[in-house]
Design goal:
The complex is a heterodimer of chains A (about 300) and B (about 290). Chain A is mainly alpha-helical and about 300 residues long. Chain A has a domain of about 210 residues. Chain A is about 80% helix and about 0% strand. A two-stranded antiparallel ribbon of chain A has the order 1-2. The longest helix of chain A is centred in the N-terminal third of the chain and has 27 residues. Chain B is an all-alpha fold and about 290 residues long. Chain B has a single domain, classed as ABC transporter involved in vitamin B12 uptake, BtuC. In chain B, strand 1 and strand 2 form a beta hairpin. The chains are: A mainly alpha (about 300), B mainly alpha (about 290). Chains A and B meet through helix 5, helix 11 and helix 13 of A and helix 4, helix 9 and helix 11 of B.
């Protein structure tokens, strides 16, 4: 089983590596989009799947990353890695006080608090016109260079490479986090927080740390999103976006890391296809989602693993 | 601040609290009995407003609409509960939250298809148009009506829960659904009934809100976020908690909008944060409920 998943991982990395030559330009740009949202869903799985904390406001950190990166690129024209760093750090820094408040509560209260803070951040992005451009957002975000005086990243292939490397590195980093002693502690909290506390450890520092880490990765995804699409707008922070993040995780398979990435890809593709047929695709997304929750609780990866184990 | 202005603000806060209570009471009730956070609850409020618009336009009467629409919204809610939620109560709570999120998407988009994207105004009934005069100032009648409605519904819900046999069964299911089931309570029916009633309350809130706020897309999410804050402050599953929470949020929003119009939202969250530092499970909530 382990070797089989190693083979699959190697095949996936190979596929990502040859994609720029195998795919047409617009296909490559769709793949870039899928990977960015894959990273977003991956970051959500850290808190949701591995720690059992359901955040209903994760899109806020994606949005913070997008705004941070867009501002750096537009006003200072720094290389992309600087923008990525800024976006990720901004998201992590804002997540610290939010997490401090939210982790005081557990379960459903935690979900509602994260939603409330996310709507607050959304309102700030919407109202602070001078900085964020209000409802129009920030347009014309450039894909600058790899480093000062370095090669331009304006071509679809070059930017795809940056996104693919960032996503693969993040996936490996998250895998390392969940298999570390810290990650084991998170899973212990998920399984039985009371027991964890009664064994003499305080769960809150762990929960706060993983909340900030997850927000930082979500910020990184947002920081990639802004130059890729060329804009940052309040919509990416809206509650619908947070809910879609949860959908991606559930679709792919909660607590599997790679599942949410696949879930995000499937989810965005379905949306892409539906929206080319009807402008009211949200009805069908909702319907598919309701059916998935009822009939496929393990998501795609969970169900596939169950079938593989049976075979 | 003069006494008159103070009274005016107080009434504004109470009117807002009345609407918030209609929504948050149902949210809290559903959580108390079904252990489900109904994300679609705000959409039922919006549905109430839109159906109220249709009913007023068809009949030309506001009062009958106020009576007809809530049961209609309630029946729709009960049907949705019986056809989807009923099958996944044994799963972790996240699945129920996500299921209702899916339902919210479907309903919101359906309303957009049926009514279009523009906001629709609803005329208040003749009796409640205009303003009343007192102490040298005028105050809109409709807001006074909202204060009365919120209080009346609060009293009725409380009496039903504490003074009737059905209320007794509902409270038994809330406390321990398995035990109540063993003692002969039809838990499935109680859940569907409560879900339907909660949706009807949200629908009532929607019809009542429409003359003041108009019916518009996105009013559902606006109100559900406020209602979440209300129940977080008051404690999930507690009707008195919803009432107190509504008053606090209504007051925070009213005075916030007056003194700091740009940052009114922040006041609400600051109040919530302050309360949570001392009681992470809300003023009237119980620690184990979440």
């Amino acid at each position: 089983m382990m070797t089989r998943s190693r083979w699959l991982a190697a095949a996936a990395v190979m596929a990502l590596a040859i994609a720029p030559w195998a795919l047409a330009r617009h296909q490559l740009s769709i793949l870039t989009d899928l990977l960015i949202f894959g990273l977003f869903a991956l970051s959500l799985d850290l808190i949701m799947g591995y720690t059992g904390m359901v955040s209903f406001g994760h899109a806020a950190y994606f949005g913070l990353g997008a705004y941070g990166s867009a501002l750096v690129l537009i006003h200072f024209e720094q290389p992309i890695p600087i923008a990525l760093l800024t976006g990720a750090v901004l998201a992590g820094v804002i997540a610290l006080p939010v997490g401090w408040f939210s982790t005081r509560a557990t379960g459903i209260y935690f979900a509602m608090l994260t939603l409330a803070f996310a709507q607050l951040l959304y309102t700030v992005a919407y109202k602070w016109r001078d900085l964020t451009g209000g409802s129009d957002g920030i347009a014309g975000v450039p894909k600058t260079t790899l480093f000062w005086g370095g090669p331009s990243l304006a071509s679809a292939g070059a930017f795809y490479a940056v996104v693919a490397v960032a996503v693969v590195v993040s996936l490996v980093a998250c895998r390392a986090i969940v298999t570390s002693p810290f990650g084991r502690a998170l899973q212990a909290i998920r399984e039985n927080e009371r027991r964890f506390v009664s064994l003499g450890r305080d769960s809150r520092p762990f929960k706060l740390t993983v909340f900030v880490i997850a927000a930082t990765f979500a910020g990184l995804a947002g920081a990639l999103f802004a130059p890729f699409r060329g804009f940052a707008s309040p919509e990416v922070m809206f509650w619908v976006a947070s809910g879609q993040g949860l959908m991606m995780v559930i679709t792919g398979g909660i607590g599997t890391l790679v599942g949410p990435v696949i879930g995000a890809m499937v989810f965005i593709l379905i949306q892409e296809i539906l929206s080319s047929y009807t402008e009211h695709w949200m009805i069908f997304t909702g319907l598919i989602f309701v059916l998935m929750v009822i009939f496929l609780p393990g998501g795609l990866v969970g169900t596939a693993r169950r079938l593989a184990a049976r075979a | 601040m003069s006494v008159i202005a103070l009274v005016e603000h107080l009434l504004n806060a109470l009117a807002l609290a009345g609407l918030l209570f209609l929504v948050s009471a149902g949210l809290s009730l559903v959580f108390g009995i079904l252990r489900v956070v109904n994300f679609a609850h705000g959409v039922f409020y919006m549905l109430g407003a839109y159906l109220g618009f249709t009913a007023v336009r068809l009949t030309g009467w506001f009062w009958p609409s106020l009576l007809i629409v809530p049961p209609a919204v309630g029946i729709l809610g009960a049907l949705l509960e019986a056809s989807t939620l009923r099958f996944i109560y044994r799963r972790p709570p996240i699945y129920q939250l996500l299921l209702t999120f899916g339902l919210a998407l479907i309903l919101e988009e359906t309303v957009r298809v049926l009514y279009g994207p523009t906001a629709l105004g609803v005329e208040p009934p003749a009796l409640l148009q205009g303003a009343v005069e007192f102490g040298g100032t005028v105050y809109p009648r409709y807001r006074l009506f909202l204060v009365v409605l919120g209080l009346a519904v609060g009293a009725v819900v409380w009496l039903l829960l504490t003074r009737t046999r059905t209320g007794l069964v509902i409270r038994a299911v809330a406390q321990n659904s398995e035990m109540a089931g063993c003692l002969g309570a039809d838990v499935r029916r109680v859940r569907t009934l409560v879900f339907g009633c909660a949706c009807a309350l949200a629908g009532l809130g929607g019809v009542a809100a429409a003359p003041m706020t108009t019916a518009y897309l996105g009013m559902g999410i606006g109100v559900i976020v406020d209602a979440f804050v209300v129940v977080v402050i008051g404690g999930l599953g507690s009707i008195p908690g919803s009432m107190v929470g509504s008053l606090i949020v209504g007051a925070a929003q009213t005075w916030g909008a007056f003194y700091l119009p740009e940052t009114a939202m922040v006041i609400m969250y600051a109040v919530m944060g302050a309360i949570l530092i001392f009681r992470p499970w809300g003023l009237f909530g119980e620690e184990d409920d979440a």
